[in-house]
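User: Sequence recovery, please. Input:
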């Protein structure tokens, strides 16, 4: 279940040992949780589970280990703080871009350039073996500029669309978290494989559609039109964004349970930010479509 693309895989908290939540193979001679192993049992500094007999008992009985109070281990507070910093950087970048840049073709070009830089930074981070706060915050800043410009453009034609999109994004994210915590969604290997297959197919179809529109083969945006077909595609994209969030939640849960290093909380923030940005952009388009003011 490992991929180098964070948009698809979120490169979980066990890049060297498989995805902790998706049937990671046990280390030789090591304890296993069902078919899973603690991906941090042998990492630098030693993991407390390796010496803790009570943690070994929990593992043998198939219960996920409870991360002990140990310095240097990721906690939910770490994830919340890093996510706040990353999403806050996106918000600041968006507000500044909205306030400073006028709605012009040159601003649109700047937005596209910012989006490309953000994409490159995201790809560089995805291939690094460790989290880089500078890369992640840089990604957030350029992504914020992109969102600020396009939000202003949408607002100029569909007044209030960005505000509605923010509310919609919060609603989808909150509902996804509640459903996940209630246990209505179980992130299993099968669930992830099916979801990833659909996500990859969606991205490929959208890429082909973009080429067809660029060469004039498809009119009015093709599958991304401002009509009913575009609305259906937008709803599917938002559902995929919610799927990405469930993978993020699972990785955070596993990372804390298995005693992931504190630095991994930056990757959690990175994944959550990308999922939320994905949902916001699609929600913005969907609000514009339902506004019906073409």
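Assistant: Recovered sequence (294 residues):
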């Amino acid at each position: 279940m490992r991929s180098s693309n964070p948009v698809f895989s979120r490169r979980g908290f066990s890049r060297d040992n498989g995805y902790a939540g998706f049937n990671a193979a046990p280390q030789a001679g090591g304890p296993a949780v069902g078919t899973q192993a603690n991906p941090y049992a042998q990492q630098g500094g030693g993991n407390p589970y390796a010496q803790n007999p009570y943690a070994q008992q929990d593992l043998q009985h198939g219960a996920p280990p409870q991360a002990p109070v140990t310095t240097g281990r990721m906690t939910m507070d770490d994830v919340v703080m890093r996510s706040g910093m990353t999403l806050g950087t996106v918000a600041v970048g968006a507000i500044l871009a909205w306030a400073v840049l006028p709605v012009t073709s040159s601003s649109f070009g700047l937005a596209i350039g910012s989006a490309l830089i953000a994409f490159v930074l995201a790809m560089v981070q995805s291939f690094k073996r460790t989290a880089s706060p500078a890369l992640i915050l840089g990604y957030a800043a350029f992504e914020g500029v992109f969102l600020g410009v396009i939000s202003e453009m949408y607002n100029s034609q569909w007044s209030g669309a960005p505000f509605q999109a923010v509310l919609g994004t919060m609603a989808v994210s909150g509902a996804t978290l509640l459903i996940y915590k209630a246990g209505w969604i179980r992130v299993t290997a099968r669930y992830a494989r099916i979801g990833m297959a659909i996500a990859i197919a969606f991205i490929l179809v959208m890429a082909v559609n973009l080429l067809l529109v660029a060469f004039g083969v498809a009119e009015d945006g093709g599958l991304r039109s401002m009509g009913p077909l575009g609305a259906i595609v937008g709803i599917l994209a938002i559902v995929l964004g919610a799927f990405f969030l469930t993978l993020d939640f699972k990785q955070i849960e596993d990372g804390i349970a298995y005693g992931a290093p504190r630095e991994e909380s930056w990757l959690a923030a990175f994944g959550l930010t990308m999922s939320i940005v994905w949902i916001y952009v699609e929600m913005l388009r969907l609000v514009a479509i339902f506004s019906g003011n073409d």
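The chain has a mean pLDDT of 80.
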